[in-house]
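Figure 2 data, in text form.
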Amino acid sequence: MISRALLGLLGGIVTVGLLTTGVIAHHGWTWTEEKQSEMTGKITKIYIGPPHPQIQIETADGPWTVDFGNPNQTQAAGFVEGSAKVGDTVLILGNRSNRPGEKLMKAVRATINGKAYTFYPERLPKP
C-alpha cells in the first residue's frame, strides 16, 4: 500500500513538472520573430498574474493574445489592476510568434489611453 507521504511527493513532482513545462514555453524570445512590429486592437480580456500577465485583443486580423513581462516587470512598468479595461484601444510594440498561424505576441511596450507601459526597455528600438 502506498503511503500518503509518497502520494503527496509524487503529486508534487507531477505538479512541478507541469508548471515548469508551461513556464519554459513562455520564457525567452526564441519562440518570437526577430523583427519587432506594431499591432493595434481593442482589449477583450485582461489577465494579471503568473506566469505572464496578458491581454487578448481583437485586431483587423482577428483575435490575438499578447504576453506582457513577468508580474514584477509588468507592475514595475506601471501596469496594474485597473490600468486598462475591456474595450480600450491598445497599441502594442513587440515580437510576434514565429510559429505559423499562432496569434501570440510578446509585448515590449503597450500604449493604452495615451500611457506607455514598457516591459522590456532594453528591447526598445534605438533612436
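Caption note: The chain has two helices and six strands.
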